[in-house]
Amino acid sequence: MEPPIQSQPLSSRLIYPAVMGTCLLLHVWLRSTAWGTAWNSYLPVLLGAALITVLERYCPYRRHWSPDRSDVTNDLAFMMIVQVVLPKFLTFFTAIVLVRFLSSHDLALSGLWPQTWPVFLQVVLMLLTADFFRYWLHRASHEWSMALWRLHAVHHSPHKLYWLNVGRFHPIEKAFQFLFDALPFILVGVSEEVLGTYFVFYAVNGFFQHCNIELRLGVLNYVISGPELHRWHHSHLPRESNRNYGNNLILWDLLFRTWFLPQDLEVGRLGLVNRGYPLDFLRQMKTPFIKNADQVPDKGNHHESTQPPVP
Predict the structure, then answer these.
(1) Mean pLDDT in each 10-residue stretch from start to end of the chain (311 residues)?
(2) What sign does the CA torsion over 124, 133, 143, 67 have?
């Protein structure tokens, strides 16, 4: 842990609601125009990424977390291949193959989703439901399944956090996540309007989770899974990182007692116990299949627990 923090100006508490509100309002406005779903979803997300990039430059949380060229190159590969191309393929496969198969066998799941509800309430329901399933998948990856943890270790490997490395996931783990936070809602026929709004919040909040910005969420730390909570989740100490599993919301952590935010302290070193764990894209495609690759402690850290431990 780092030394106690100093009080923060009001501006640090306004950053998250101002940026998130701007992106969501832009999305709502674009929905009322002739622009298609892809544009009214991706443009607000791109705006959020641009604003967060500027804020990381001018009010960083930790200057030594600023990425170098190697960081950006590898994290951009993860973002494009794992977060953009792979989900599109999985969605296409679902829409073309699985949905048609269910329909042809009179197994359509229409009628299970409250499509007559206002969009806002449908998005809230989707957030709560998706986060519930993702909470247990995430927790299992840390505490109960070594196979899942070896995949998830890729996400925990960076020694710094900045918005672009939110996309650092192994493709196999991303496919598992798709089964929990996208596939069920596609199958029950959630509308593009709801999916688009969910996507904007999901993406921009994800950027904030990993952002290197000096900010405070205050009371929102009891609702949103934001950066102050998520930094502890990336601690190299399992007793600190096996907490705050929420993907978008933190409500399930509060309910199941895994919420963790020490007062007046900041997280220390990030990453895995093995400080020599490869960080480049190509080698991280193989690391989950190398036994104990994430668990070899560096010198001076033999006293630390290895992941995933009993919490």
Answers:
(1) 55 94 96 85 96 96 96 97 92 70 63 89 96 96 95 97 98 92 83 92 97 96 97 96 97 98 93 94 96 70 39 35
(2) negative
Contact by Cβ (8 Å): 307, 272:
yes
Which two tokens mark 45? 């997300």
Q: Give the residue extent of every domain in the chain.
A: 11-289
